[in-house]
């Protein structure tokens, strides 16, 4: 793979994403920290474009806890994304806080914040530069002068979530501190293309429940959800449905904006199959690519594992969020 200096300086991309965004809710928005009255550990893995040798490998580990006395949630999120021949690695470690309060008898509000440190590294020795390529074979060395191979910066995000027994709606703004992820030095920060642009997320949904009765002892729930994200010129919309009847959960949704001509970006159909029983939930999803990359990438595989546990009984339960915590 040949990467020239000019190409490196002009490339743009959006943040990594997860198809199972409600199984990785701390990555979605800090307002979800302390989502339930139980403590929760979550592990997520995404393998995007497995048919490409240097595709994207994305990992995350999270923990969150609800503090009844303070009506607050506290969370911790570790995230890593690895891509490309040069092992371009982005690692983020952060803490989150949310506060839950009632605004009416039917609706509650949860503001949240996320403070994190992000580091980006690149192995320049694994890259193939244009002066190494020749008809007789690739040379082992290059005359290119490498910049620093590691850079890091702090970042901050805020979010707001409002919910009732059936509905929820929320928003999140990431990268408020515009962290610098460039491997090169710039005299003027305003012209630095390594500054991460703001990302805006809007999400929500509605929950329907079929109550249990004699012939249907297990209640069934259906969630209709959406997630819209925008980061500079990149826009993405996920729309779909979750179906849950213990212990089986299934999901199907579509990613893309089919009717907006300026950003026509049909991306994928996603299917989810999982099990949620007791304190453990396990899910697998696959992205069926429907863009022009359909024959070249192999879609995307994603696996999530969640484990919940209690340390002591809750005296006064808060209103439960209706969004799927799978």
Topology at a glance:
Blueprint: H1 5-10, H2 25-28, E1 39-48, E2 56-67, E3 72-83, E4 88-99, E5 101-102, E6 108-121, E7 150-163, E8 167-174, E9 199-210, E10 220-231, E11 234-245, E12 248-255, E13 268-277, E14 280-289, E15 300-309
Query: Which strands sit side by side, in order, in the main sheet?
Result: 1-2-3-4-6-7-8-9-10-11-12-13-14-15
Total strands: 15
So how many helices? Answer: 2
**Main sheet, how many strands, which sense, barrel?**
14 strands, antiparallel, barrel
CATH topology: Porin
Fraction of helical residues? under 10%
What top-tier CATH class fits best?
Answer: Mainly Beta
Q: Approximately how much beta-strand content do the residues carry?
A: over 45%
What labels would you give this structure?
326 residues; mainly beta; Porin; 14-stranded antiparallel barrel; 15 strands; 3% helix; globular; disordered N terminus
Describe the structure.
With 326 residues, the chain is mainly beta. The chain has a single domain, classed as Beta Barrel (Porin). The protein is built from 2 helices and 15 strands. Strands 1-2-3-4-6-7-8-9-10-11-12-13-14-15 form a 14-stranded antiparallel beta barrel. Strand 5 and strand 6 form a beta hairpin. 28% of the residues are buried.
